[in-house]
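User: Design a sequence. Structure:
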């Protein structure tokens, strides 16, 4: 399980980074697959040794921006919450 792979602080930073990154997705782009893709990049960042909130948030925001560019969606500048569980998205990434 992903919670066993990282120390509690890094995992908490990962959750916050995922929430922050998903907030910039426009309406219609915030599905489970998008969250998993962003979570995957955050996990990669943490596995490379950067468990800081700043580093993880940057990785997540880059992934969200790339996802929007690829899909042709608009970035959401409002702070709307994305449906779904942060832990579920992070956990699913580690299962694949």
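Assistant: Done.
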């Amino acid at each position: 399980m992903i919670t066993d792979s990282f120390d509690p602080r890094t995992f908490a930073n990962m959750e916050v980074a995922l929430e922050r990154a998903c907030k910039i997705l426009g309406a219609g782009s915030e599905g489970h697959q998008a969250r998993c893709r962003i979570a995957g990049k955050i996990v990669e960042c943490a596995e490379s040794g950067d468990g800081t909130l700043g580093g993880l948030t940057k990785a997540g925001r880059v992934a969200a921006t790339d996802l929007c560019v690829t899909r042709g969606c608009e970035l959401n500048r409002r702070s709307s919450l994305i449906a779904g569980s942060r832990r579920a998205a992070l956990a699913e990434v580690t299962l694949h």
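The radius of gyration is 12 Å. The chain has one domain: 2-95.
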